[in-house]
Amino acid sequence: MDKSEINNSIIGEKIRSVFGDEVSVSRVRSVPGGDINDAYALELTDGTGLFLKCNSASNAAFFDAEINGLKAIAETKTISVPEAICSGTYGDRSYLLMSMIESGREIKGYWECFGHDLARMHKADASGFVTGGKYGFWQDNFIGAGKQKNTPCDTWIEFFREQRLKPQVDLAVRYFDATLIKRIERLYDKLDDLLTEPEKPALLHGDLWSGNFITGPDGRAWLIDPAVYVGHPEADIAMTQLFGGFARTFYDAYREEGLLGYGYDDRRDLYNLYHMLNHLNLFGSGYLSSVRSIIDRYV
After folding, report:
1. 110-298: which CATH topology?
2. Which residues contact 152 (CB under 8 A, 6 or more apart)?
3. What is the pTM of this model?
């Protein structure tokens, strides 16, 4: 993709509508965009930097969900995210346009600040993000490339069972033998004893691993690529520990906020069963042993 293609497309029109009729794209360079999307750094004639992600038109809903997730986090006024400008389609492509975040130098106490900022997000009022229940979100979205159901539920445990585990298990059933299916059904029945309800619902990032935050120009952690929903804050923390974990000082700071209940360490792997099932569905049988191991721990 070059600057002429962008300037002459609906993306160029959107840029001019936001930044002025005389502004256009002066430079385009390809940048890493993850495993799913093509990504480009744009420089405008007024010096503004933008970040553009593209995919096929059939994946337009993916970008629509991402832009709404970024806006939800921004509404909490607790932790920074890139500014979501617009999303849409042009020809056979879909796109997401957002501000370019120039990486800064980490501030002193970076990880402690990150822990406290995330806790502030988890403490923010989340009631406006879901209707017809306390947990969920106003639209379904995506976890990686997989679809994520957010149908509202009145309790966290019901939501985790019906909107997190069951949809993934239904997709993964081709990998399971009859014995494992029976154990999963027993796990569903045990969730009321294994999980706890949070003190209040929290807006979660939803896919919080080390690849989904960056250091912003202010030297603090900024969140990217959300899979937001309203749930138990422990589920976000569990995800941070799934692939190696964050710095110890991040967890120390977060624990100071009082959001991790007694017995969290015993619940952590159960929260992450959702992500292991999603990886099984996206990437294949290499994740089956991890799924089986977690189920064996709790049943």
Report:
1. Aminoglycoside 3'-phosphotransferase; Chain: A, domain 2 (3.90.1200)
2. 130, 131, 132, 133, 134, 135, 136, 159
3. 0.94
| Contacts of 190 by beta carbon, 8 Å cutoff, 6+ apart | 298, 299
Least trusted range by pLDDT, from 22-36, 44-58, 101-115, 218-232: 22-36
Residue 181: strand pairing partners: none
pLDDT of residue 2: 83
Mean pLDDT of 244-264: 95
- pLDDT above 70 (res 234): yes
Please give the Cα distance from 17 to 219 (Å, whole number): 31
- Tokens 């832009």 belong to 67
Catalytic sites, residue numbers: 207
- Homologous superfamily (CATH) of 3-99 is Phosphorylase Kinase; domain 1 (3.30.200.20)
Strand partners, 229: 204
Q: Check whether 285 has a pLDDT greater than 90.
A: yes
